[in-house]
Design a protein that fits this description.
Layout: E1 28-29, E2 36-37, H1 38-47, E3 48-49, E4 55-57, E5 63-64, E6 77-78, E7 85-86, E8 101-102, E9 107-108, H2 109-119, H3 126-129, E10 132-133, E11 140-141, H4 143-147, E12 151-152, H5 163-180, E13 184-186, H6 199-202, E14 208-211, E15 215-216, E16 224-227, H7 246-258, E17 261-268, H8 285-296, E18 301-306, H9 314-318, H10 337-343, E19 348-352, H11 363-374, E20 381-386, H12 402-422, E21 425-428, H13 429-438, E22 440-445, E23 448-449, E24 464-466, E25 472-473, E26 490-498, E27 503-507, E28 522-526, E29 532-538, E30 544-552, E31 564-571, E32 574-579, H14 593-597, E33 603-609, E34 620-622, E35 628-638, E36 647-649, H15 656-660, H16 676-688, E37 702-707, E38 710-715, H17 723-726, E39 761-762, H18 770-781, E40 786-787
Parallel strand pairs: 3-4, 12-13, 13-14, 14-16, 17-18, 17-19, 19-20, 20-21, 39-40
Antiparallel strand pairs: 1-2, 4-5, 6-7, 8-9, 10-11, 15-16, 22-36, 23-35, 24-35, 25-34, 26-31, 26-35, 27-28, 27-34, 28-29, 29-30, 31-32, 32-33, 37-38
Helix pairs in contact: 8-16
Length: 790
């Protein structure tokens, strides 16, 4: 028999002859920490199948799990945060044969499982067909229909990963917009859309892309994601001032008094001609200008002459071989278009060309044409029209080609800059068009500083050498907004040079073979033209103008590290040049690099608007043939022709397609000519924003002209409000000298002198008596008479 003496921790168990059913219940099963008293095991076994126990057996001795039964799970987990751990519940699984039927239609269970396996999320499944009624709405719609309310480019494959798929996705989304009439595409804020310069992408022009961040679509110059929070474009201040309309205003004032006639006309290309694609003459751009003038001068008889001819350029406008329009009255008497226009004795003349000049603007012809009209006996007030971009989606004349679009920018910017530099009024249609269609202002920009890369652009202030006759070419570096320094429109460069050069020059614009454009127009900085630094502007149409800066040529101390510190900025039509002058007494700023990039201690020696062409180019500096040491302290660039955050940005108010789209109702060309809605949205606002009748009646009624030798007071009776003021050019500031005469004055009222039709001349021998000499001086100095004595 077995030994029933219980085992203890103090010794190994031993055996006895006691029977097994008499085993001590304190005996252990297992050993060590895992030992369990035998009586505990017996209790667990008795609870299996007992009522209220772990489980019970059914009448066939099968295990029957009750609703409250549980099996402990290790480890147990809390049901809620902070609660005590609760074991997982074991639930019964109901086995069914696959042929069992379910539902009222007795559908086999296997088929039901297959039907449910994808029906919820599958296209056309239960979820897709679920209808939802908006709170307060009356029509239930499916999720698919609701999703189509907004055209999202990602639904069409745009992911910001692959250029081909992004371009294809934009095109497909745009096509959906064209199909449904939707004008807006949406893009997620975390996706950088990839584009290209393809004509296919350019032709996807039925929509505007909106998103949550400012983002240019890479490599697509005039396509971008426009943030929702940007404002819509607002009209800029008038670009035609009273001083630009002097002859026209004189004619209107005179006609308002006498009942005479004022003549206005346009000479240009098809944008203003009667051959443009409108549906009625009253919707033509020129007719809008005539309407604006008549509204400004309702009591003046206005005669208008539309002398524009389609397909013309500045060259053909200036050529005496170009005949006038056959629908202009009296055209048969002239073989020269410009001579016919001059014969009309216009008081206001709009010169408009640019769309056909993108392939080669003749700036000399433009200059000569202006000189021709200003050389006539009857000189009109001349204003210019700055053209706009053609449709991005048009294959006509390859308008959708980026090179052609840059050519239009090249010509349009030149017309704008010529007007600004020479103080002419102009209608900037190109600016307003870019603001409304493309969402940016090409004339309001800021520059982005480049980051040195250690190779093509060294760390700021690091010297490098230029060999004799070597130019400094802008480096192959890209700005944060993807503008290449060697292909930009605007820039600012701060640099040091040693030794001091005799002359340096830089280019203000460039030319591309695709445009057939004239060469670049340089600016020269002359250090060898006298005591002062001289800025020489070479005009694109020929000739130069020198500006004496009044700043002495730098005199550098022996042993100085640098001969010249200079900054040059070309932004829009503004050219600003500054330099450090040792003669100024300001310490050399190059001792601290932070001084240099902000040009601390520099003197501005030139700041004017100049003539230049538009479109990107590769800027460079040339010197006088010597070898030089050079250091760059700062270089910033921008591109005014491509959408990016360097420009003032807006949310577009119109798509490209709707400006040009041809319909029988509104005309249009699908190319360059706007339909009547496009004319109303783009050209009309610029025309009506000008002040065609400034309040000349508000001129001072009494004026005093004072000088070193006396004063003259003029009343309203002495001066015509317009003519009198413009004829006072002989009166010099702070001085009335012998020989001066105030044209238009009927009397010199300060001394009650008789009315003077003209200054009489005192003749005879020069007096020798001192008293007579003094009297003669008083009479002539105050303008009563001219000294003709000999």
């Amino acid at each position: 028999m077995a030994d029933t003496t219980p085992s203890t921790p103090y010794g190994a168990p031993y055996f006895s002859s006691v029977k097994a059913d008499n085993i001590d219940p304190q005996s252990n099963i297992g050993a060590g920490e895992d030992a369990v008293p035998l009586q505990d095991v017996a209790g667990l076994v008795r609870n299996v199948g007992s009522p209220g126990g772990v489980a019970q057996l059914d009448n066939k001795a099968q295990l029957y799990l009750q609703g409250q039964s549980a099996l402990a799970v290790t480890p147990a987990t809390p049901v809620t945060s902070g609660a005590a751990a609760v074991p997982a519940m074991l639930k019964p699984l109901l086995p069914m044969h696959s042929d069992a039927v379910v539902g009222g239609q007795d559908t086999p269970l296997g088929d039901a499982v297959k039907m449910a396996a994808g029906s919820v999320q599958a296209a056309g499944g239960d979820a897709t067909n679920t209808t939802v009624t908006a709170e307060g709405g009356i029509v239930a719609r499916t999720p698919g229909i609701r999703a189509a309310d907004n055209i999202v480019v990602h639904d069409y494959g745009v992911g910001g990963v692959s250029t081909p798929s992004d371009v294809a996705g934009i095109i497909a989304a745009d096509a959906q917009g064209a199909k449904t009439g939707g004008k807006i595409l949406r893009v997620a804020p975390d996706v950088d859309v990839l584009g290209d310069a393809s004509t296919a992408l350019a032709a996807a022009n039925h929509t505007v892309i909106l998103g949550n961040k400012d983002q240019r679509i890479l490599n697509a110059p005039r396509r971008a994601v426009h943030p929702d929070h940007y404002p819509s474009a607002s009209m800029f201040p008038p670009t035609i001032k009273a001083r630009h309309l002097t002859n026209f205003l004189n004619a209107c004032i005179e006609a308002s008094k006498t009942g005479g006639t004022v003549r206005i006309g346009v000479m240009g290309d098809s944008i203003d001609s009667i051959a443009t694609c409108a549906r009625t003459p009253v919707d033509l751009p020129w007719e809008l200008l005539c309407d604006a003038v008549r509204k400004a001068w309702p009591n003046v008889k206005i005669e208008s002459y539309n002398c524009a001819i389609g397909g013309m350029t500045w060259n053909s406008m200036n050529s005496d071989d170009t005949p006038p329009n056959p629908w202009n009255p009296g055209y048969a008497d002239y073989t020269s278009w410009r001579k016919y226009v001059a014969s009309l004795n216009l008081d206001l003349l709009l010169l408009y060309s640019g769309g056909n000049d993108g392939r080669g603007i003749d700036v000399t012809a433009m200059y000569d044409l202006v000189q021709f009209f200003e050389g006539q006996s009857h000189v009109p007030s001349i204003i210019f029209g700055v053209t706009y971009q053609p449709s991005l989606g048009s294959s006509t004349l390859d308008y959708w080609d980026i090179g052609i679009q840059e050519g239009v920018d090249f010509a349009a910017q030149y017309v704008r800059s010529y007007a600004l530099a020479n103080d002419y009024g102009y209608l900037d249609f190109g600016r307003w068009h870019a603001m409304c269609r493309d969402g940016f202002d090409p004339t309001t920009i800021s520059l982005s500083r480049l980051a040195p890369n250690g190779t093509t652009l060294l760390d700021w202030g690091t010297p490098f050498n230029l060999a004799a006759n070597q130019d400094y070419d802008f480096p192959d570096v890209t700005s944060v907004y993807n503008v290449d320094a060697n292909y930009c429109t605007d820039w600012a460069l701060t640099f040091s040079l040693d030794p001091l050069p005799n002359v340096l020059d830089f280019q203000c614009s460039g030319a591309q073979p695709i445009w057939g454009q004239p060469g670049a127009n340089p600016v020269f900085v002359l250090f060898n033209a006298g005591d002062n630094v001289v800025i020489r502007i070479q005009h694109p149409y020929g000739g130069t103008t020198d500006y004496d800066t009044g700043v002495p040529v730098p005199t550098v101390a022996a042993g100085a590290a640098w001969g010249l510190h200079m900054g040059v900025a070309l932004k829009g039509t503004q050219l600003r040049i500054s330099m450090w002058s040792p003669q100024s007494g300001i310490p050399d700023p190059s001792t601290l690099e932070d001084n240099m990039w902000m040009e601390k201690g520099f003197i501005t020696i030139f700041d004017r608007h100049i003539e230049r062409c538009g479109a990107p180019y590769a800027p460079h500096f040339s010197f006088d043939g010597q070898a030089y040491k050079m250091a760059i302290h700062s270089l910033l660039v921008a591109d005014s022709t491509k959408i990016n955050p360097d420009q003032q940005r807006y949310k577009p108010i119109v798509t490209d397609n709707e400006l040009y789209e041809f319909t029988d109702a509104h005309g249009g060309s699908d190319a360059y000519h706007l339909n009547s809605e496009g004319t109303r949205k783009i050209l009309g606002p610029v025309i009506y924003a000008q002040d065609w009748a400034p309040d000349v009646a508000a001129a001072p009624q009494v004026a005093s002209v004072a000088g070193r030798t006396g004063a003259v007071q003029l009343t309203a009776a002495d001066l015509n409000p317009v003519d009198g003021w413009q004829n006072m050019g002989n009166v010099q500031a702070q001085s009335i000298k012998a020989g001066d005469y105030i044209a238009g004055a009927k009397s010199v009222t300060a001394w009650n002198a008789p009315a003077l039709g003209e200054q009489p001349t005192i003749t005879g021998s020069k007096p020798t008596d001192p008293i007579v000499q003094q009297l003669l001086a008083v009479v002539t100095n105050y303008g009563f008479a001219k000294d003709g004595t000999t």
